[in-house]
Design brief:
The complex is a heterodimer of chains A (815) and B (335). Chain A has 815 residues and is mainly alpha-helical. Chain A has a domain of 314 residues. Chain A is built from 29 helices and six strands. In chain A, the strands form two sheets. Chain A has a three-stranded antiparallel sheet. With 335 residues, chain B is mainly alpha-helical. Chain B has one domain. Chain B contains eleven helices and one strand; from the N terminus they run ααβααααααααα. The radius of gyration of chain B is 20 Å and the shape is globular. Chain B starts with a helix and ends in an 8-residue tail after the last helix. Classes of the chains: A mainly alpha (815), B mainly alpha (335). At the A-B interface, helix 15, helix 16, helix 17, strand 5 and helix 20 of A face strand 1, helix 3, helix 4, helix 5 and helix 11 of B.
């Protein structure tokens, strides 16, 4: 088994590493005319090869005993590279490895999606990124997957953080994709394009700032934990948690807060979701599917599961905070999706909402796993609920990967076919004559139905399970009269159900605007067929949506085994071993999904027979109607002639008079803004943040826009300093700061994102972020720190280096 | 198993057969309350038959979704007949299609989603308006419905349809004290009020939507159906009738169940005994609800679209109070 893990690392490292390094061969050797395409293709082939090898290898680890004696496995045999583990100076040179069923589940998820997306990208990248160097994109994708897979295997603080940082950095190249594409296309002509180019550039900055902040917080959490446990090895944390050698309460709370904040930033939980909605639209669409579908969960959710259920035993009260956070995230994410203006942005925002649903499961598991229970019946019910909550959470992780992957890849195909993803320019793909468009549209509709959580597709099952935890949980808790738990659970239930309702509305809007109705403009006629590979991936994912919804019973069984290895699950604080009777009963009767929570006698079920009968009723009705229309004489004589629709007697021009998405959501604006004017135009003027400092950045932005409008890209490069200084210097007379130091106020987070116009809280977040950062930088400036010149990257690397130093210090201190 | 399947399918057929009658009686009762004569007894059936003879018209802006939606909507409401207790209780031990109240909540969303897509697919401004409004109402009722379902299942410890029904029916037999029964009555009344408002919104009845309107700009659900004709429209009309029947049945049977067949021996068809006659009473039960609804509709007018959320927030309020009463074990009298 130890050698098996080393083999796995070897496979991952060799295939993805060579896939990542291959494109750089192009610097030395030219492979003829299509050198770039060939390199891209082969780099992605390496990714496919590696992913399938990882898939098969990971399955071998399934039968690994769930809780081994926590033997440390190092990457290199003793005596080979490392003489003696005790004498190692740098812990990173002897990475500790560990694999259990939780890792295997995520490994399979990542590897299968990496394979699918690489397969899809072979055609997509060579077509879409023809004018920029697509082989570097493929290389970055390889590294991206490599580090994501390594996160799941590694087992010590240092290696974990290195991999986390590796994911961040390898994606940062991909976050620049749109910016590169815009710059390759030449000078932007229209103001909208200028704004787009600028947004693509700021997206990159926002990404780096957020993710590095997240990594720093996670570093803080893990370093404190390592200091307390006198080791960097995760196994030591597990042992300590299992034998109840826990940090004191305040330290544990501190670790929990740092971990929650850090992993929330990495996962894009509100209020840290801005980077997700900002950055994802500017990454390549096919790889965007990978990030929003899978990698957000590895860096965020997997980390949370490990920290909260394997290494720590946080107080159960934190669960209420997490549940509320999750509910808010779900609602905020759907609102963003509802009001976004292009398809990619909408899908990225909706990932936030789905992560909220996943986080809700984790929060509920925190509440029930760590609640003190005085009777064995109560312990049994709490234990069952905690398991059910985690199962629901993981099920939604799987489902979200499938339908978000499907929708994102459909978006990629739409973008490739029509050249745009803006709602205002899309529409009516289903009614065009192209078979290609119709195929994409059908797949898109399946994705929309599953993401809206409609039975019998897959989104429904996990939402149903999550709601069952709420239902059963309130019942289990209600006998103890815990006021705050009850209020928290009811509030979480309300927020989540609102989010479900909003999702249905959002996806009627999105699907209706994108694929239904009459096209708003003629689509390109001379279109090359979508490659078979791309359609194949789409249909595969669409059928997975249906299958995961219909056959939920075996999947729930598998997921129950997945959560088994988590060390603190299933044992309460007084007992170190798991009570035997306290397992959740998820009986798999003949084709019916049943939830029985022991202790309180709660039961709920539905059977697959119902969905089968629903489908057969649909089929029977369809057949009846078909034969009915055949039988009638009007069908024999004339066809179903398409007629012009009726709009009150006036002349009708279908492409101009479509119902727009802004009009669709106007009812919601009307309610939430409290004004009768709906639509975007009505809002733009009125909703400025009410305070005075809000006006300052607005002026800056407009001046920067003016400046950029008259500057060509080349000139911008030449006169970069002047332009940036005119951007950063506010038009108002400077106050005393300028006199005392050479420091200037800078806007790090774009204060007025196009999306955040009405969101006071977010504006204040950006404002506060800019303020705090400015304040910190000014402080360091005044301290005369010669390392600083106000450059944000240098600042962040400085912090990161400091933490690395801290790590080393801690290591030498305690080993 | 065979007898069970026979009786359940019989129940479903009765549900489908009397649904148009119920809608016709509702129109009749409203007409009588306004001093008019009202349509004949079988008018809805004549209408359906007439529409079935006509050719459907499909707008040139629409795709296959437009023609598939009536089938999906109708199939959803028909399939509810398989699992809902109308006058027989389905046997929970049989291997029969089975859903719980939460699945029901999600299943009720499906027709709205499909109709919303159909409205966008027809591609005209008016149908789009209709689907936006329909989804908006859907959004308003969803949290209230989930919370109401939660209140319904809070005491019964299960979300299964039969479990809730049986619990409410057998309350008296369980040896509860007077105080418990009073609390249960209070909770059930609150749930009834919340569910009544939700049913009005879900069925598109009066303060939420005026089903009899002929002005496109004020339509909600009907605006989506503007482009439908022929047997497509017949299916949608039948679906509307089924929806009303199902929702009234939800109000009738689940909170204050009375006069159900199988009163004594719930799961054995052979032991039906004298209770089988309650089956004949079932249409009259529904007719009582229809009279209530007709009265309500005669004394209410349609509210502005912005005011709709006031009604659904009342529903939310009632269900929230019901939940809090159970959870914190509030009592009317302290004995």
């Amino acid at each position: 088994m130890d050698n098996g893990i080393r083999w796995l690392v070897l496979i991952i490292g060799l295939s993805f590493g060579s896939g990542g390094l291959l494109p750089y061969l192009g610097l030395f050797i030219k492979f003829g005319q299509n050198s770039q395409k060939i390199l891209t293709r082969f780099s992605l082939y390496f990714a496919i090869l590696g992913s399938s090898a990882v898939l098969t290898t990971a399955l071998l680890f399934w039968e690994n005993p769930s809780r081994p004696e926590y033997k440390t496995v190092t990457l290199f045999e003793q005596g080979n590279w490392v003489v003696d583990q005790e004498q190692v100076l740098l812990p990173g040179f002897a990475p500790h490895l560990y694999i259990d069923r939780l890792s295997v589940f995520f490994l399979i998820l990542v590897a299968s999606f990496a394979a699918l997306i690489a397969f899809y990208s072979v055609k997509w990248l060579t077509k879409d990124a023809s004018e920029i160097s697509s082989h570097y994109v493929a290389a970055a994708f390889n590294f991206f997957v490599l580090f994501t897979l390594l996160i799941l295997i590694c087992n010590d603080t240092f290696f974990f953080l290195v991999c986390l940082e590796g994911v961040t950095l390898s994606f940062s190249y991909l976050a620049l994709y749109k910016h590169k594409k815009y710059s390759a296309c030449g000078m932007p002509a229209r103001p909208a394009e200028v704004e787009e180019t600028e947004a693509a550039k700021t997206a990159f900055k926002v990404y780096l700032i957020f993710n590095h902040t997240g990594v720093i917080l996670i570093t803080a959490a893990l370093v404190i934990l390592s200091i307390y446990n006198h080791d960097f090895d995760f196994n030591r944390f597990r042992e300590a948690s299992l034998h109840n050698h826990l940090p004191p309460r305040i330290v544990a709370d501190l670790i929990f807060i740092f971990g929650l904040l850090g992993f929330s930033i990495k996962a894009g939980i509100a209020p840290f979701h801005i980077w997700v909605t900002k950055v994802h639209p500017y990454s390549p669409t096919s790889i965007h599917a990978m990030l929003s579908g899978v990698v957000l969960k590895v860096t965020g959710i997997y980390g949370m599961l490990r920290l909260f259920f394997d290494f720590l035993r946080p107080n159960w009260e934190w669960g209420i905070v997490v549940v509320l956070l999750a509910g808010i995230t779900a609602v905020v994410g759907v609102f963003y999706a509802l009001f976004s203006r292009d398809l990619k942005e909408a899908l990225a925002s909706h990932s936030v909402a789905n992560l909220g649903i996943i986080l809700a499961g984790i929060g509920l598991a925190l509440i029930f796993n760590y609640s003190p229970s005085y009777t064995s019946a109560k312990a049994a019910s709490f234990n069952g609920l905690a398991q059910l909550a985690l199962i629901a959470s993981l099920y939604h992780t799987l489902n979200h990967a499938v339908f978000k992957g499907l929708l994102s890849l459909c978006t990629g195909a739409i973008e490739l076919a029509t050249g745009t993803v803006k709602f205002e320019e899309l529409g009516g793909l289903m009614t065009t004559n192209h078979k290609l468009y119709r195929g994409i549209s059908n797949a898109f509709l399946v994705g929309a139905v599953s993401i809206a959580g409609l039975p019998p597709f897959n989104g429904f099952v996990s939402e149903w399970l999550t709601l069952q935890v709420f239902f059963g949980g309130l019942q289990a808790v209600s006998k103890e009269q815990r006021f705050f738990t009850l209020i928290g659970l009811i509030a979480g239930l309300l927020l989540l159900s609102t989010a479900f309702g909003l999702t249905v509305l959002a996806f009627v809007k999105i699907a209706g605007e994108t694929v239904l109705g009459k096209p708003r403009r003629p689509y390109p006629d001379q279109l090359e067929r979508t490659p078979r590979e791309m359609s194949f991936v789409l249909y595969l994912l669409a059928s997975a949506c249906l299958l995961l919804g219909l056959f939920s019973v075996p999947i729930i069984e598998v997921l129950r085994q997945v959560i088994e290895p988590l060390s603190s699950l299933g044992s309460d604080k007084t007992q170190s071993t798991r009570p035997a009777e306290a397992t959740l009963t998820l009986s798999s009767q003949v084709a019916s999904t049943t939830v029985q929570i022991p202790g309180i006698g709660y039961e709920a079920n539905f059977s697959i027979l119902f969905w089968l009968s629903l489908v057969s009723i649909i089929a029977l009705l369809g057949l009846f109607m078909l034969s009915w229309s055949r039988w009638h004489s009007w069908q024999r004589n004339e066809q179903f002639l398409p007629r012009r629709p009726w709009i009150g007697g006036t002349s009708f021009e279908a492409s101009k008079m479509r119902f727009t998405g802004n009009a669709f959501t106007s009812l919601i604006w009307m309610r939430s803004a409290g004004r009768s004017t709906g639509g975007r135009a009505g809002r733009a003027g009125k909703v400025q943040p009410p305070t005075n400092p809000a006006e300052l950045p607005e002026k800056k932005r407009s001046s920067s826009q003016k400046k950029l409008l008259v500057t060509r890209p080349a000139e911008r490069l030449l006169y970069k300093d002047q332009v940036t200084s005119s951007v950063t210097r506010s038009s108002e007379p400077q106050d005393k700061d300028e006199v005392t130091s050479s420091w200037q106020e800078q806007e790090y987070l774009p204060y007025h994102l196009p999306l955040t116009k009405t969101r006071y809280a977010l504006d204040y977040f950006c404002l506060a972020y800019n303020r705090v950062l400015n304040w910190l930088l000014r402080l360091s400036n005044k301290a005369g720190c010669w390392l600083q010149n106000g450059d944000i990257h240098r600042y962040l690397y400085f912090i990161f280096l400091t933490f690395c130093g801290l790590l080393l210090l801690a290591f030498t201190q305690w080993r | 198993m065979f007898t069970f399947a026979f009786w359940t399918l019989f129940q479903m057929l009765v549900y489908i057969a009397i649904a148009p009658l119920l809608l016709g009686r509702l129109r009749w009762a409203k007409a009588r309350l306004q001093g008019q004569q009202g349509p004949p007894l079988f008018q809805p059936y004549y209408d359906l038959w007439k529409l079935m003879q006509r050719q459907p018209i499909i707008p040139d802006t629409a795709s296959w979704v437009f023609s598939a939606v009536p089938i999906i909507v109708l199939a959803c409401y028909i399939s509810l007949g398989l699992v809902t207790p109308f006058f027989f209780l389905p046997n929970p031990n049989q291997n029969w299609p089975r859903i719980d109240l939460l699945v029901l909540v999600y299943l009720l969303v499906v027709p709205h989603f499909a109709l919303g897509l159909a409205g966008m697919d027809a591609g005209t401004p008016i149908t789009g308006l209709g689907s936006a409004r329909e989804m908006f109402m859907q959004l308003l009722t969803e949290p209230a419905l989930i919370l109401t379902v939660y209140a319904m299942t809070l005491t019964t410890n299960t979300t299964s349809l039969t479990g809730v029904l049986l619990f409410n029916r057998d309350k008296q037999l369980k040896g509860l004290s007077d105080s418990d029964l009073q609390q249960a009555f209070l909770v059930n009344s609150l749930i009834f009020m919340a569910l009544f408002l939700i049913v009005l919104a879900e069925a598109g009845r009066l303060p939420f939507d005026n089903p009899g309107t002929h002005l496109e700009l004020t339509m909600v659900g009907k605006a989506i159906e503007l482009e439908y004709a022929g047997y497509h429209l017949a299916m949608l009309d039948l679906a509307e009738a089924l929806r009303l029947t199902f929702l009234l049945n939800l109000l009738l049977n689940f909170i204050f169940p009375f006069a159900m067949a199988f009163e004594t021996a719930p799961y054995a068809v052979e032991d039906l005994g004298p209770n089988v006659w309650w089956v004949l009473f079932y249409p009259f039960k529904l007719f009582l609800m229809v009279l209530l609804l007709a009265g309500w509709e005669s004394f209410n007018s349609r509210v502005r679209l912005r005011m709709v959320s006031n009604y659904s927030s009342w529903a939310l309020f009632f269900s929230l109070v019901a939940v809090l009463v159970i959870v914190f074990n509030l009592r009317i009298s302290s004995n």
